[in-house]
C-alpha cells in the first residue's frame, strides 16, 4: 500500500521538482532593487484542499491576517509570494495591498479570491508598491509551467545562502503520490515558527480537516522544534495544498494505513526542511541537536531544551568549540523546571561530560573533538521521568552580527 522514498532533487534540474497538477513561476519584479528573483506564483490546476499554520506573534503581517481569513474555507488554488518587503506593520495600506494582490492573482487565474494565499518576507515596516504586482502578476501567470518550482525556491530567499527543497514519494491505493516542499529561512527563527515560509504541494487526495490536523502535527515536530536566534517573526507561514490528481480514493480518517503513511512522509519532509533552515542559520557553522531526556513531562523537557538552544553563551561556546558544559547546566537551571541537579548527566554525542551533577574533566578533550564536527547532539538526562524532547539549533558566530547589523543596507 505504501512504500515511502525520499527523492533526490537538484535545483539545476527543474524536472525533478515537478508535482502533477501544479505549476509555478518566478520573476524579477524589482522589489529587491537588484537583478534577482523576488516574486513568485504557485498554482494548482484543480481546486485543492488547503491547510495552513501561521505565526503565533501578536504582531502579524497583513498577508498572515489575510491568509488566516482565506484558510477558513479549507480550500486553495494559488500562492503569491514576494521577498524583500514583509508587508508587516504597514497599517491599512498594507492590508489593502494584500487584498488587492490576491484579487489580481484570482482574476488572472480565473479562481476565487478566497482561494489565493499571499505571502511576503523581508524588511518590516516598508510599503510594497502596487505597481510591482500590477506588472508582475500577469507576467507570472504567463510564465506558469510545471518546471518552475526551482525558481520559486530562489525567489523566496532573503538572507538564505541556499534554496531549500525536499521531495518524497509514496504509494497509496496503487497510485504514486508526490509531496514537494519549498522553504526559506535563515534568521529570526524561533518556535513557534519564525521568519520562514514553507509551501508544500501534493497530488494526494486528503480531506481538508484531516489535512489541517496532519500539518499541525508535522509542524510541531519540525518547524516548531527549531531555533536559530530566539526571535519569532511577523510573517511565518506554512501552507499545504493537496489537489488529488494522483487519483487514489480520498483519505478522510486518520485511523487508516493510508493516512498514517502520508503523515509519516509529511513529517519526514517537514523535518528535513526544518533542519536545512537551521543549517543555513545566518553565519551558522554547526547544526546542533539538543536532546533533553529523563524528564517528568514532555513540557519540562521542551522548556529546558528551548532554554539551552536559545542561550547565546551555549551557542557561542559551540562556535568556539569549547566543551563548556557549565553553560548548558546554567541554562537548564533557569528554564523554570524543578529538577535535582545532583542527578543530571550531560553528553556531547557519546562523550559524557557531567555525571550526577559533577564534571568529568578527563573527558574534555574528547568532547572538544565532538564540537569540531559540523553536526552533533547535546544530551541532558534529568533522571526524573520517562519523557523527552529534541530541538534543533545552530551556533552563533561573528557573521550573525555582521549579517543582521547591516540587513537593511
Plain-language structure description:
The chain is of the alpha+beta class. It has 2 domains: 275 residues, L-amino peptidase D-ALA esterase/amidase; 119 residues, ArgJ beta chain, C-terminal domain (Ubiquitin-like (UB roll)), CATH 3.10.20.340. 32% of the residues lie in helices and 27% in strands. The chain has 11 helices and 15 strands. Strands 1, 2, 3, 4, 5, 6, 7, 8 and 9 form a 9-stranded mixed β-sheet that branches. The chain has a 6-stranded mixed β-sheet with strand order 13-12-11-14-10-15. β8, α5 and β9 form a beta-alpha-beta unit. About 2% of the residues have low confidence.
Summary keywords:
27% strand; L-amino peptidase D-ALA esterase/amidase; alpha+beta; 409 residues; globular; nine-stranded mixed β-sheet; 2 domains; six-stranded mixed β-sheet; Ubiquitin-like (UB roll)
Amino acid at each position: 500500500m505504501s512504500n515511502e522514498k525520499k527523492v533526490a532533487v537538484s535545483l539545476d534540474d527543474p524536472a525533478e521538482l515537478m508535482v502533477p497538477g501544479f505549476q509555478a513561476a518566478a520573476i524579477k519584479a524589482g522589489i529587491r532593487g537588484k537583478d534577482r528573483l523576488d516574486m513568485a506564483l504557485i498554482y494548482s490546476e484543480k481546486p485543492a484542499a488547503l491547510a495552513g499554520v501561521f505565526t503565533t506573534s501578536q504582531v502579524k503581517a497583513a498577508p498572515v491576517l489575510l491568509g488566516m481569513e482565506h484558510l477558513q474555507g479549507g480550500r486553495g488554488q494559488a500562492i503569491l509570494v514576494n521577498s524583500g518587503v514583509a508587508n508587516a506593520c504597514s497599517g491599512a495600506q498594507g492590508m489593502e495591498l494584500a487584498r488587492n494582490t490576491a484579487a489580481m492573482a484570482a482574476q488572472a487565474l480565473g479562481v476565487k479570491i478566497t482561494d489565493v494565499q499571499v505571502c511576503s518576507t523581508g524588511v518590516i515596516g516598508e510599503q510594497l508598491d502596487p505597481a510591482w504586482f500590477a506588472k508582475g502578476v500577469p507576467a507570472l501567470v504567463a510564465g506558469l509551467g510545471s518546471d518552475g518550482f526551482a525558481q520559486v525556491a530562489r525567489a523566496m530567499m532573503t538572507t538564505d545562502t541556499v534554496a531549500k527543497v525536499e521531495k518524497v514519494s509514496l504509494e497509496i491505493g496503487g497510485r504514486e503520490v508526490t509531496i514537494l516542499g519549498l522553504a526559506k529561512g535563515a534568521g529570526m527563527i524561533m518556535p513557534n515558527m519564525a521568519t520562514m515560509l514553507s509551501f508544500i504541494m501534493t497530488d494526494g487526495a486528503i480531506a481538508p480537516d484531516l489535512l489541517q490536523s496532519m500539518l499541525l502535527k508535522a509542524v510541531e515536530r519540525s518547524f516548531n522544534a527549531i531555533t536559530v536566534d530566539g526571535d519569532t517573526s511577523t510573517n511565518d507561514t506554512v501552507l499545504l495544498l493537496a489537489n488529488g490528481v494522483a487519483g487514489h480514493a480520498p483519505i478522510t480518517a486518520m485511523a487508516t494505513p493510508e493516512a498514517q503513511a502520508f503523515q509519516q512522509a509529511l513529517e519526514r519532509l517537514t523535518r528535513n526542511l526544518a533542519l536545512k533552515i537551521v543549517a543555513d542559520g545566518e553565519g551558522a557553522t554547526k547544526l546542533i541537536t539538543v536532546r533533553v531526556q529523563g524528564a517528568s513531562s514532555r513540557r519540562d523537557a521542551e522548556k529546558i531544551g528551548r532554554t539551552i538552544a536559545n542561550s547565546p553563551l551555549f551557542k557561542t561556546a559551540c562556535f568556539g568549540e569549547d566543551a563548556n558544559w557549565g553553560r548548558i547546566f546554567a541554562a537548564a537551571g533557569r528554564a523554570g523546571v524543578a529538577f535535582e541537579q545532583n542527578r543530571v548527566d550531560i553528553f556531547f554525542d557519546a562523550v559524557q561530560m557531567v555525571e550526577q551533577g559533577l564534571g568529568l574533566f578527563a573527558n574534555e578533550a574528547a568532547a572538544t573533538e565532538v564540537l569540531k564536527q559540523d553536526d552533533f547532539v547535546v544530551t541532558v538526562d534529568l533522571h526524573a521521568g520517562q519523557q523527552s524532547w529534541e530541538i534543533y539549533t545552530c551556533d552563533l558566530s561573528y557573521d550573525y552580527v555582521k549579517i543582521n547589523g547591516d540587513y537593511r543596507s
